[in-house]
Amino acid sequence: QNPKTSAIVKQLVAEGNAGELQKYFGSRMEFGTAGLRAAMGAGISHMNDLTIIQTTQGFCRYLEKNFSDLRKRGVVIGFDARAHLSSGGSSKRFARLAANTFISQGIPVYLFSDITPTPFVPYTVTHLKLCAGIMVTASHNPKQDNGYKVYWENGAQIISPHDKGISQAIEENQEPWPQAWDDKLIDNSLLLHDPYATVSKDYFKDIQKQCFHRNINKETNLKFVHTSVHGVGHKFVQLAFEAFDLSPPFAVPEQKDPDPEFPTVKYPNPEEGKGVLTLSFALAEKDGAKIILANDPDADRLAVAEKQESGEWKVFSGNELGALLGWWIFTCWKNHNRDTCAIKDVYMLSSTVSSKILRAIALKEGFHFEETLTGFKWMGNRAKQLMDQGKAVLFAFEEAIGYMCCPAVLDKDGVSAAVITAEMASFLATRNLSLSQQLKAVYDEYGFHITKASYFICHDPKVIQQLFDNLRNFDGKNTYPKSCGRFKVSGIRDLTTGYDSSQPDQKAILPTSKSSQMITFTFANGGVATMRTSGTEPKIKYYSELCAPPGNSDVEQLKKELDELVNALEKHFFQPEKNNLQRKTE
How many angstroms separate the CA atoms of 391 and 311, rounded? Predict the structure, then answer.
């Protein structure tokens, strides 16, 4: 019933444009553990009013099956600032239609009245003890995209088998229920609640448990620049700084207000490197700020840059910031917990494609480190399990600039990560240390961990499948490569098939998933490289790392060795020319 998407379809029918209609209606968006992520537009392959109604009807029926007290507890729904003029879709509209679906079934809905960071949804689920949460966002995807992200009652993103169950329920509930389109009905409903004020207040109170140096914060001369890259982060990072008694960061004026067009950047993703930070660098130079904090548009990720002595700017990789925050959060914990026995219940987590620096710190300091599959859905669920057993999960991170610094949010959170980074930098400044110098000190103490990650773009699933099939049948059927250029392969773990050459029974310990590709190669020189497909973008990603024991300080040699390994990986395993793969460009 949306006049805009309806008109698009009628126009294509009138033109007899079977090719475009096939694109719109050929296959339904797949609901996976990350929920939905697709372009806004007409048809069942896109995000629009109808597909949101269908998805929410399925999710609603699935929740009814799983929670006898759903009508007492309810769900939370949040949204970012995305909008798509030509199809009439927007995050706010989708959130209201989703709320209407639940309310029509007598289920209470805590719908934020305004845009919020993604982490506010998982926070609200646990804080208000709700059954589930929905966040309408496409995070840092291109502007035409939107998404529908789902959290379970434990405050973590869903994992299997919930995705299959919800997907099945969507299939069974495709016809819109009576009044499904009339979102105005919710405005006078007693089942509609606005958690915005309470949650804002309580969230900022909860993250203050991670504030350890209030006096230093009050007096620091360090200046920060913050950009929310046309997303939701501005107001919330300002409030977080206030909660920590830090002077507010300078906000990049052209990027501080939400704008669904993302006019100043090619991609609204701070992970893409210096291009996204051009305006931040200019403002920092003008105002004499040493550190830049950049959130992605839904403020669940954080990139950090620091001005070096040379005048150059260093943008920290996700692994480098993970090393710094891991060191910092453990140091703060240690200074406040004199009981040496307590360390046996302390945990840190990172995903299997992230740097193993936390493992090195854990080994030396005596706490536990665990790795999980890629993505915060795994770290969030594992953290909750550990917390339920009385363990303290201090920190979790993934190399894609995602950090969980505060146990009140079981997902990545760019707001708390920004303010905790600012406190760490302010503390280090009192010791005349920069973040870069401290990072080197961490590596000196726990061993250098050099990492390099990138990706190739490939829009053809057949090519991707063929590339991974070739790796699994490299020298004849069911044989993996024994070398990559001059680098000898010493171990293989394939989390698509469940094979792991290092295990006595050759079975991988981490869960396997046939629906995504992921192979990890260990090399005789101590290098590790993983190749995997992305769940939300048409990319084949790779991650590589060389670790040295403490005391080996020939960093340049390590970097050179890793560069050569990565070149060999691209040449022999990706074969970009043969497979027509497009390289990542700055």
Answer: 44
Architecture of the domain spanning 448-583? 2-Layer Sandwich (3.30)
Is it true that domain 203-310 has CATH number 3.30.950.10? no
CATH architecture of 3-193: 3-Layer(aba) Sandwich (3.40)
**Residue-level pLDDT at 553:** 67
> Which parts of 128-208 fold into alpha helices (H)?
162-172, 196-207
pLDDT tens for each residue of 287-304: 999 999 999 999 999 999
Phi, psi for 577 (deg, rounded to 5): -70, -50
What is the token pair recorded at 268? 């609204």
Catalytic annotation, pick one of 45, 139, 416, 544? 139
> What whole-number distance in Å separates Cα of residue 451 and Cα of residue 456?
17
Active site residue 515: no
Burial class from Cβ neighbours inside 10 Å (0-12, 13-18, 19+) for residue 504 reads: exposed
Residue 438 has pLDDT above 90, yes or no: yes
pTM for the structure as a whole? 0.94
What is the spatial distance between Cα 402 and Cα 417, in angstroms, rounded to a whole number? 9
Per-residue pLDDT at 546: 94
Percent of all residues in the chain with a pLDDT value above 90, rounded to a whole number? 93
